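Fig. S4 source data, part A: sequence.
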Amino acid sequence: MASIQSWIKASRLRTLPLAMSGILMGAALSYFDGGFQMKITVLAIVTALFIQIFSNFANDYGDSQKGTDNQHRVGPKRTVQSGEISLKEMKVGMVSLIVLSLITGIWLVAEGTKEHDRTTFLLFLAFGIVALIAAYRYTAGSNPYGYAGFGDVAVFLFFGILPVMGTYFLNSHMINPEIFLPAVSIGLFSTGVLNLNNMRDIENDRNSCKKTVVVRMGSDKSRIYHTSLIAIGWLTAILFVVLRFQSAYQVVFLLTAPLFIRDLVKINHIQEPRQLDPYLKKLSVATLLFTLLFGIGMIMATR
């Protein structure tokens, strides 16, 4: 029987800051526009964490079945690959997370759309179901899209655009086109984390026929791509502040810029792929810190 430590390992705690970043950004934006609701935000965070952990379980399960998790993999050893959690146990874990995600997700959507018609409720419920399917189909099932190089698009949408704009709407009951800009920032930073993961695993992914964006473009171009993701993410955030400027508090998020710049410089000088591994966690944490300071700045600007 799998230990608690093994389940914690399979949950990949270092990925959870990204799952929270999109929700917190959407909540802060709704506060800035006078529509924040604590219950909605808490339910959104819990649901996002459940879906992210389910995604990590499904990734562990899918890669082990396809042989991508093997002795040549550079990153941390996976729990199914190592035998810490059996395939049957992982299936039970995945089903449990689906149930938990649906419980909190339906509650979230019901609370957030009670002032709207049934179509809005069903639309947001569909978004949640699609998110669960996308989390599973990334590496599991037949023809997983992560093996065809579409993981970057999925991360951009499901970690950036949908959580930020969805949380904003469920809180405020409206859509402001300008919030697309910080949503893009979170989406691009999150895609940067996946890109680092794929840069680290490029050789094993290539040998396992996992055609990620990095495998398709090669190591050198993937570094340019990574720098572009971070740079454009910063530009869209700054543009939002320029368009919606109310107070100097709104620029407090610039304090995180040195973290991003420092790591970009180091990443572009690393030649050994396995040395990229710590930067996944660093970018995840930097993204969460960026989000928190961005949100604090907007909250302070309204006072």
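Fig. S4 source data, part B ends here. The chain has one domain: 4-301.
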